[in-house]
């Protein structure tokens, strides 16, 4: 396996860490920047919106760029945005810097997997992609909880600076280790304008809509899980950090199980069961949020279910592209990454609205309603059941 594949994984680790690090430090950042927790929650929204734009649109617009140049520029932008967030002296500066970092996040993830495939022999392509996205899983399982703990003990800036350092190391690794080869454009990508048109294909948009529903429901609660644990469950900040470690540990397990579930049940059934399980877990949290022991169980379950959804939903949208728009598979992949981040953005917005209007104790039930709605759409429009075309 080329060493640069592990550099991709390190970059993915930095991306995953910075996206979710704020979640565990909402209360700390809120106090330091003299802003409401809803305002700090908007920094999650800003990052997710940047990733939503970056994944499909920037991928299409840069389809003719040298892959090495593109990935170097992407990590430069990400590292600069991360450093600016670290040095933020007010919430406005943090919002802008995280939006910029989010643009790089979406573009890097949409490109890195396809580049990894081009750098290895065909029989190692699956392993190469797995190595790239292992960085995201490690960031969620260990980086975010440990960063949250470090931020609670020292300062939130120290956690953010660790992300910047990872980004810079990844940038140097790309510069010295990534071969300057001309990677072929994915089949069917065509000119940038052709790729842009595929982004608005109604079938692909409907497929990614399920992803938006699922992650909106999950992140309506998860964006504000730290203040919920502090105010409703009545635990200390170190205990809350430990509970988030439980979330991350089970999320790593769920990420593996999600792929196996898709293979055994089929993508529609797998996603349906995942969304039903998520909705029921959110309902359970709504009723047992004051019980720390039960909350540990539900938080672990929510982590496993939310990240079992990642491979299942990604596979579903790619299979839809194979059936309906065979030439747009790379765009579909980026579009679904945008779907995940759109859900994160909408979830953080909805969660902030719920806190402001009716109270933090209603976050879980609000997320459950959204998730049930997505399940209903999936049942009514099972578009991935059309027979697979021979043209892939």
What are its keywords?
Growth Hormone, Chain: A, 15 helices, 2 domains, 392 residues, mainly alpha, disordered C terminus
Structure summarized in a few sentences:
Helix content is 82%, strand content 0%. It has 392 residues and is mainly α.
Polypeptide structure, described:
With 392 residues, this protein is mostly helical. It folds into 2 domains: 1-184, MFS general substrate transporter like domains (Growth Hormone, Chain: A); 189-392, Growth Hormone, Chain: A (Up-down Bundle). It is 82% helix and 0% strand. It is globular, with a radius of gyration of 20 Å. It starts with a helix and ends in a 12-residue tail after the last helix.
Give the SSE layout.
Layout (H helix, E strand, L loop, with lengths): L2 H22 L1 H8 L3 H25 L5 H20 L4 H28 L6 H29 L2 H22 L14 H8 L2 H21 L2 H9 L3 H29 L1 H22 L3 H33 L4 H29 L5 H18 L12
Helix pairs in contact: 1-3, 1-5, 1-6, 1-7, 2-3, 3-5, 3-8, 3-14, 4-5, 4-7, 5-6, 5-14, 6-7, 6-11, 9-12, 9-13, 9-14, 9-15, 11-12, 11-13, 12-13, 12-15, 13-14
């Amino acid at each position: 396996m080329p060493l640069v594949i592990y550099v991709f994984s390190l970059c993915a680790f930095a991306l995953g860490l910075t996206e979710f690090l704020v979640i565990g430090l909402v209360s700390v950042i809120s106090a330091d920047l003299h802003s409401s927790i809803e305002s700090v929650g908007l920094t999650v929204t800003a990052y997710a919106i940047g990733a939503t734009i970056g994944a499909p649109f920037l991928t299409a617009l840069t389809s003719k760029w040298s892959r090495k140049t593109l990935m170097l520029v992407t990590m430069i932008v990400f590292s600069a945005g991360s450093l600016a967030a670290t040095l933020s002296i007010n919430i406005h500066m943090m919002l802008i810097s995280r939006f910029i970092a989010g643009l790089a996040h979406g573009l890097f993830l949409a490109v890195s997997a396809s580049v990894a495939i081009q750098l290895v022999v065909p029989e190692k392509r699956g392993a190469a992609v797995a190595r790239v996205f292992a960085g995201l899983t490690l960031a969620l399982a260990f980086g975010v909880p440990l960063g949250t703990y470090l931020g609670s003990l020292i300062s939130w800036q120290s956690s953010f600076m660790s992300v910047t350092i990872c980004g810079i190391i990844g940038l140097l690794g790309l510069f010295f280790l990534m071969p300057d080869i001309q990677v072929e454009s994915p089949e069917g990508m065509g000119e940038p304008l052709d790729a842009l048109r595929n982004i608005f294909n109604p079938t692909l948009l409907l497929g990614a809509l399920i992803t938006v529903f699922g992650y909106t429901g999950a992140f309506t609660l998860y964006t504000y899980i730290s203040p919920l644990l502090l105010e409703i469950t009545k635990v200390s900040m170190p205990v809350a950090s430990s509970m988030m470690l439980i979330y991350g540990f089970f999320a790593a397990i769920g990420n593996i199980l999600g792929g196996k579930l898709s293979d055994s049940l089929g993508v529609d059934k797998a996603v349906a069961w995942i969304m039903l399980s998520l909705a029921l877990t959110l309902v359970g949290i709504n009723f047992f949020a004051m019980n720390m022991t039960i909350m540990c169980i539900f938080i672990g379950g929510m982590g496993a279910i939310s990240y079992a959804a990642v491979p299942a939903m990604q596979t579903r949208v790619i299979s839809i592209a194979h059936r309906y728009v065979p030439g747009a598979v790379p765009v579909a992949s980026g579009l679904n990454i945008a779907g995940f981040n759109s859900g994160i953005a909408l979830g953080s917005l909805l969660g902030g609205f719920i806190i402001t209007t009716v109270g933090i104790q209603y976050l879980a039930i609000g997320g459950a309603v959204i998730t049930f709605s997505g399940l209903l759409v999936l049942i009514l429009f099972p578009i991935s059941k059309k027979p697979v075309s021979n043209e892939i």
